[in-house]
Amino acid sequence: MAVQQAMALGRARDERLRAVAWAMLGLVLLVLSAGAGSLISGAIADEEAFLAARPCVETEASASRGTEDCLRTIRATVLSAQNAKSGPKAVDVFQVRLRAPVPAPADQPFNLDSNGDLAYLVEPGEEVEVTTWRDVQVSVRQDGVAETLPGLPDESTMYVGLTLVIVWTAALAFIAAFGSARRARCHALGRPVTPRVGFGRPKAVAGAGAVVVVPLAVSFLSLTLWDAWAAAAMAVVISALVAVPTTYAALRWDRDE
Fold first, then answer.
1. Where are the domains of the chain?
2. What per-residue confidence (pLDDT) applies to 7?
3. Does the structure show a pLDDT above 90 at 238?
4. Beta carbons within 10 angstroms of residue 86's beta carbon
5. What is the mean predicted confidence (pLDDT) over 187-201?
6. How is domain 58-148 classified at the architecture level of CATH?
C-alpha cells in the first residue's frame, strides 16, 4: 500500500511538472502570437496605401524620389536579358538588368516569367518602362505588353494565418496543461484517472490539419478574394468556423479509449 501511494505521489509530481511545462509553452506561444499579430496592421496599411496609389506627377517624383506613395514610371534601356535560376528551389526565370544610371529601385535586376510574353520580347538595347512604388518594383511594360512583378505588399493575411496558427497551438498547450494538472490531482488523491482527451495518431493528424493547414489555406484564399482589413477579418472568421469545431472534434474523438 505504501509503495502504491509513493508511486502515485511520484506520478502526481511528474504530472505537475508537465502542467507547468505546458503552461510555460502556452505563454511563450502567446507572446509569439502577439509579435506576429503586431505586424498585421502595418502590412495592411502598406497594402491600402499601394491600392490607393495613383500615377506620380513630375513634381512628386522629383521631390520625394524613392519614398513617394504614387506610382512612378521609369524608362530605361535594357543592359542584359537572359534565362537564369532564382531562389532556393532554382526556379527558371527571365532576368533583366537595366543600363545605368537608373533610379532606385529600378536599378536592381528583376525576374520575369520565363514563359511570359515579355520573355520573348525584351532584348538588350531596347527600352522598357518600369513602374515602381516606394522601394518596390511593380510592373514592367514594353510595346503594350505588361507583367506584374512579385513582392507587392500583400502579406497581411499571411500574418493573420500565422497568428491564428500560434494562438490555436497555445490553446492546445493550455488544454494539455489543464489535463496534466487534473491527472496530478487525481494521483495525489488516489482517484482513478479517466482520460477526457487523448492524442492518438488520427487525432494528431486531424488536429494538425485544423490548427496549421486550415488557417494558412483560408488566409491565402482570403487574399485572393478581399483586400486589406476585409481579407484579414474574413480569414479569422472562416478559420474559426472551420478550425475550431474540427479541433474540438479531433480532441474529443474516442476520448475514453
1. 2-46+155-252, 58-148
2. 66
3. yes
4. 15
5. 61
6. Beta Barrel (2.40)
